[in-house]
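Z., the sequence and structure:
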Amino acid sequence: MNPRTTATGPAQAPQPLEVDGVTVRFAGLTALDDVSFTVAPGSVHAVIGPNGAGKSTCFNVLSGLYRPASGSVRYGGQRLTGLAPHKIAALGVARTFQNIVTTEGTVGDNLMLGRHALTRAGFVSSALHLPHAVREQRTHLARAREIAELVGLERHFDSPVALLSYGDRKRVEMARALCLEPRVLLLDEPVAGMNTTERAAAVEVVRTVRERLGLSIVLVEHDMGLVMRLADEVTVLDFGRRIAHGTPDEVRRDPEVLRAYLGTGADSTGAADNSGAADTTGAADSTRAGNTGAEPSGAKNSGPEGDGPGTPGKEAA
């Protein structure tokens, strides 16, 4: 099957993802304050900021886990705000989570979960193994194998997920999202916890996915070296506000970004550039407390920031 083709027909070209004036409040705390940005079709757009900046809250709004108090999210003119997560996924927006969300079974079993939304055969047809249901199952399985090969998991397709390395499990997470045949892929800290070798491999996977599938990718990541290498545009959040937007080179020299990460003024630009500027994220994050609070007004029940859905908790990023 062609990488640009789904089991239900030709894949649509990516459309702009527009975030317009989004505000999210956790009880009395404003987690996002009038945030706006646009993800250009086929681009890699990074959302960065210190801990507590509102990055994962933003992802939860994009994927439908949170409903903003005001503002809107549109994809290709279709309003996503207020839609359930599964309906947003059906429109072509898929996401991964900071924490690995895998099930028991093999890599293939996990990837086939991502094909569920594209399955047209009903429960009875599948249970009775009617011919059309069997044919559809074979088509989905073949596509899942193609995606496993795309992310470098082809030799693990029939292996139990529990036996894989941490880096390979993160790739299973990404591959399952890709099995939804999205046009926009939301990657929430895709290299968090990986060693140097695994990070390098993950960067190549993201590049390959973008080139082969033509996706728009929205990336939240604390590894600033990765962001600077991969992103076409960067949006910087600090305490829920957008403080900068532009190319990676423009952002790393922005005085407001330097203040947010380093606590320095614009006169430190040269020194920060020479030392890697935003690569000091770790030091900055260690001194920043994450936002906490109750469920945002209008939000659905969902997990804490950065975690999978369904686990009560507080915002982590």
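The two ends are 39 Å apart (CA to CA). The chain has one domain: 5-195+203-237+259-286.

Let me know what you think.
H.
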